Structures are given as C-alpha cells and as structure tokens.
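Side project, low priority. Logging it here so it doesn't get lost.
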Amino acid sequence: MPSQQQPAYSPRHSLTRIITIVAVTILLGLQPSLVFCEQRVIAPDQTTGARFGESTDLDGDLMVVGAQFDSQLGSNAGAAYVFRRSDDQWLFEQKLLASDGSQSDEFGIAVAVRRDLIAVGARFAANASAVESGVVYLYQFNGATWEEIDAFEGASSNEQFGTSVDIEIAVPEDSTSGDEVLNVVVGVPRRTGPMRSFDGAVLLYQLSPDKTQWEEIGEFFDDDTLSGGQTGSSVAMKGDVIVAGAPQDEQLGSDAGAVYVFARSGSTNVWNQQDRKQPGDYGMGNERGRWFGSSVAIDAAFGGPTVFVVGASLNANGGGGAAYIYDFLSGLPIEQVIIPPNTIVGDNFGASVAIDMTGGLVAVGAQKHDAAGTDAGSVYLYQRTPGGWIPFDQFEASDTAANDEFGAAVSLFQGRLLVGAPGDDGDTPSNNAVGTAYSFDSAAVFADGFESGNTTAWSASTP
C-alpha cells in the first residue's frame, strides 16, 4: 500500500436522514438494524473549476474520480484521483496525470477501474499525427503506486477518442481453457465511418494471452445509414456484450438517439452488431431531442440474464429525461420506461446511469434537478422485483446545494453507490466547481426477516 494515506472526507455532519429512518422503524414496531453512513470524498488539492466528480467508477475497495478541468498541467488539462477503502473510510491514494498531458486535454472525462487496472480518457489530447484526436491512458498498480503502462491513441483530429471507456475482465462463454480475458472498450463519437461523417465508433482492445501487449480486436461501426449519430458517446461492457450510445442518431427524429449492441460470436473472437435499441415509446409525442443513449450501463448476476439501462437525458416531460431498462422477466425480454413524476424541463434525468444486478438496483442521475436548489441535482434508485423495476428512493447528499449537479456521474458496485457532484464548491465556498464525490453504503433497516425485501437504506450522514 502507498504511504500516502490521508482521510478523504470532510467533517461536516447531518444526521437528519438516519434519524428519520430509525424513528419510522420504531413507530412501526420494528427493530432498527445497522445503517451505514455517507462519506463525502474530496480531492486533496481542491482546484477551482476542476469539476472533480464529472466521472466516477468503483471496483471492490477502489474508487476513481475524474476531474477533467484540473489545471496542474495547464488549463483544462485534467486529472484523475484514486482512493482506497480501509476501515470503512475512503483514503486518498494517488493523483493520476498523463505523462505527456497539456492544456485542454480533458484527461478524466471518462474513467474505469477493474482490479489493478485503471483507464482514463483524454478526449482532446494530441498525438504525433493528429491534433485533439484523443488518448486513453492505462495505469497499473505495482504494489506501491499506480504506473502509466500504456496508451491507446486516436487516429484523426477532433474525433474525441476516449470520450467514454470501460474495462471488463471475463471468461468468454465458449472458452475451453477457462482463462480470463482483459478487455478495454473505448468510445470515439466523432470518428468518420466508412461512408458517413461523425458516425462514431467503438474500439475493443484485449491483453494478449502471454500478457505482454495490448491488441486491437476490432473497430465497430453501427449499421445506421445517416451520419452524425456519434456512436460511442457512452459505452459499457459485460462478458461478451458491449453497449454503445449514439445520442444524436436521427432515425426517429433529430437527436432522437439509439443504442447499439455488439457481441462476440464463436471461438474466433469475432465481434458483430447484434442489435439496435430505440425507445419503444416512439410516437408518444416526444421523439425529438430525447438523446437516447446519453448514458449506458450493463451488468449480469451470476447465472442470470444480462440487463442494461439507457439514459435519455432530454426525453419526456418537455425535456426532463427518462431511462429505459432492457431486462428478461419470466424468460421474456422487456423494455421498461422510467420517468419520475417530479422531473421538469432541464432536469437531465438519465444523464448518468448505473446498474448492480447483485443487489438488483439501478441508479439514475438527474444532475439539474432543483429539489435542493437550482441545478442542485438528485439521484433516483430503482429495485428489481418479479414484476419489474419499481421506484425505491430519491435522495440528495446531506449538504447538496444549488449548482452542485449531484448525480452528474453514478456508479454501483455490490451495494455501494458512488455519486459525482462536480459543481460542488468543496470546503471553501469561493472555490466554484471544485467538485465532490459521495459514497453511500446500503444496509438492511429492519431486523425482522425482511432484509431481502425493499429495505435498503441510503444514509445521509457524514462520519
């Protein structure tokens, strides 16, 4: 473990939500059980305008938070921060910077972490042959620090390679050896396709079997005949399946959006487009400007179906947003549309999504929701039941205030929720858009045998 271990939380307290939960259980005659606390995670250097929390990811006891406008290497050069959980506290471990970083790179626009590997996108970074083509940097933990070990580069100027990124470690379904394959998937939303400009693409890289080099497995374009869809604006991968958002796809109208599903077939590691998803409520009067595919997330419980969720941040309610869940219930595929009744124009519900099939939870961020002030933001939780996904909770952080944009990024991992609030002012009110991240742990509230039901509590107190 690195020697740099300082607590990454602020000492501000608010016990309102936890007290309310306990009071309700007492009134109902139930025995309250343990409820875990919210932890407020901040960058140790708290740079004005860095927007720490614009991107997030979780894996086990590791957290990575992007700050795409950090200025250590120049204006808007960007950074990413690694935190490790120890004794129920998130401790700052390391600040990641690109070895060749410079101003306007936006390093940290996208982050992903799995085990000892971190990927960070810098969508405007240049390389030797192209200006602002984009780069994805890889970091590996060597037992003491995170080392930059490799980088994937964009091919053409302004194609925004690295706008989105994900990591997946999986055993292919038809594997005879049982060996895991390490995958990195990268979204390139402004890459020109074989016949269309700004069509977008998804690139898949795999670590070679001898673990010595990364190999580009494929470059995937969608089958849309129109240009400008920007496939790869969002990406997520689980097992042998990749989902990629194209929020400006125009098949159903201007910026209606689409999501493309790419999957591996056969033992030859060949990948093809398997499906295209478009909102099933087309024709309901809100086709235009939905930005379906603004965000995507995918997961599968062991032995269970692969389920993915799609954000449409400008859909419905005059632009309040929506989310779509693609699931299998009773063996049948379903599309479930989620539109909260309290969202209004500009809430951006669906700007971020996350799914955890281990706990049967979906999180949807609405970073411009005004419940705690103008553009303060909010997060909505939904729980899987035999009859479908049902509303579970809507909440803000204990200190959420105007312009925080709580919910700009969300991540879920085995009962733990991470939320980015890049507009938060940090510990110094004058530091506009320093940014903050919040970690929430779930726990059963009632100790009467209902722990497997709808009893998860998301606290709002800070240690």
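Brief comment: Helices lie at 16-27.
Revisit when time allows.
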